[in-house]
Amino acid sequence: QKEVEQNSGPLSVPEGAIASLNCTYSDRGSQSFFWYRQYSGKSPELIMSIYSNGDKEDGRFTAQLNKASQYVSLLIRDSQPSDSATYLCAVDNYGGSQGNLIFGKGTKLSVKP
Amino acid sequence: DTGVSQDPRHKITKRGQNVTFRCDPISEHNRLYWYRQTLGQGPEFLTYFQNEAQLEKSRLLSDRFSAERPKGSFSTLEIQRTEQGDSAMYLCASQGERVTGELFFGEGSRLTVL
Question: Residue A1 burial by CB count (10 A; 0-12/13-18/19+): exposed, middle or buried?
Fold first, then answer.
């Protein structure tokens, strides 16, 4: 059974702080890794994708991938109340189609003003 | 580009009834996916279409579920003889041919089976 594990939270950080979200995955064959943000009652939206080991930065967001440790993380710098949402880690289901993703249960982030 | 649209947004039905959901993907996207999400869980893959061909089905897609994508445009997901365990958000996502794994989700169709 392929799995993606995340701490469910809630993770609470003060406004302006760095939020650190973590994810581990079970299938060493996975090649594509994603972070989706989901506001309450809304659908997931892609915020970061990463395919190779190391860091990838996009604005206030940095994704980190370590395939040897089967570990993916997301850092959100200068956190804002508008970042309060559930963050879903997803990895490709190796052997499946490109959009066949395995999602974690998500980490709920709360940014306090 | 009007995004992925789904209809209806909410459906309440009694156990044993049939329901059908529709998804209209982003117009230039030839790949379409159905996912299911229950409360407190991440989305779970159900099925995948490339154009009109259904190329993948999850074991979650029991024989009560059927999906179609006639002419490679919109897609429908039908659930026959609904059960309370079918209550969930049914999400449709589309994907362009050149973009790897980046799914654009619709707002979902929430099903409540009484």
Answer: exposed
Q: Is the dihedral of CA B86, B90, B95, B99 positive or negative?
A: negative
- Coil/strand/helix, residue A14: strand
| Residue A87 token pair | 């963050």
Interface test with B, best of A35, A43, A87 (most B CBs within 10 A): A43
Q: Pairing between strand B53-57 and B109-113?
A: unpaired
DSSP letter string, B36-48:
EE-TTS--EEEEE
Looking at the partner chain, which of A44, A101, A106 has a beta carbon nearest the beta carbon of B101? A101
Q: Do B43 and A88 touch (CB under 8 A)?
A: yes
Closest CA to B94 of B37, B15, B28: B28
pLDDT tens digits in sequence order for chain A, 113 residues long: 889 999 888 999 999 999 999 999 999 999 999 999 999 999 999 999 999 999 999 999 999 999 999 999 999 999 999 999 999 999 998 888 888 999 999 999 999 99
Q: Which residues of chain A lie closer than 8 angstroms to B25, CB-CB? A: none
